[in-house]
Structure formats: structure tokens, C-alpha cells
Amino acid sequence: MELQAAVPSGEVAALHRAIDDDGGKVLSVYREPYGGRWLVMAALPIDLVEPTPYQRNLSDTHVRKLEAVIGKIGRFLDPIIAVRLSKPDHAARYWTPNGNHRLSAMKTLGAKCIIAI
């Protein structure tokens, strides 16, 4: 397997530094197995993560079920997807186009960070 073969691009290295600067921690840098694109898995400060503005509304029932399951098993096993947004007029934010219910459940449970790809 060549999922970690070669050296990541400068863009990936810059993202790694930015995540560190934002108070997060990169856990892994790897190539996804289909297209070979570089991905970063990181623990992000939960307060910097928000849903994209065009996401569907939260299902309260779904969020409560996730809270119960996460609390019962004591683990968060399904990373969210996040995209870093850097704007000159404010601190960086991370938008999640896939993971808003998990994000909401983790916030309610008092998590300080969330795992994201």
C-alpha cells in the first residue's frame, strides 16, 4: 500500500501548520485509497467548527440518539468532514458539510475538540 508514500504537497504542509496555529492537532496525513489525494485527520477545537450555511436543519431526534450512543459507549468513532476557511477579518473557521449532527451531539456532551478529516 502506498497511502503514505511520497511527500505531501506544500499545500498539505501549510494546512498542517494552520491547524496547529488554530489550536488543533494533526493526527495523521495520508493519501485516500481511491484517487490518492492527500488528506489530513485532525483534532479541531470544537468552537471553531460550524455547519455550512446551506446545510439541512438539524433533526433533534437524530442528535439526541447520537448523544445517547456516544455517551453509552464512551467513544466518538465517526470523524466529521471539515474544510478550513481563512478570512482576513476574523479567525479561521472550519465548515462541516458532513457532520453537523455529530458536531451538535459532541457540543452538547461537552467535548472540547472533534476529530475531522
Protein architecture, described:
The protein has 117 residues and is an alpha+beta fold. The chain has 3 helices and 6 strands; from the N terminus they run αβββαββαβ. It has helices at 10-21, 60-73, 100-108; strands at 25-31, 38-45, 49-51, 81-87, 90-98, 113-116. The protein has a 3-stranded antiparallel sheet, covered by helices on one side. Strands 3-5-4 form a 3-stranded mixed sheet, with no helix packed on it. A hairpin with a 2-residue loop joins β4 (81-87) and β5. α2 (60-73) crosses α3 (100-108). The protein is globular. The two termini are 20 Å apart.
Secondary-structure content class = alpha+beta
Taking strands numbered 1, 2, ... along the chain, how are they ordered across the largest sheet?
1-2-6
Termini Cα gap: 20 Å
Order of helices and strands: HEEEHEEHE
Radius of gyration: 15 Å
Overall average pLDDT: 90
Main sheet attributes: strand count, strand direction, barrel closure: 3 strands, antiparallel
The proportion of residues in beta strands is 25-35%
Helices, by number, come to 3
Q: What would the principal axes of the Cα set say about the shape?
A: globular
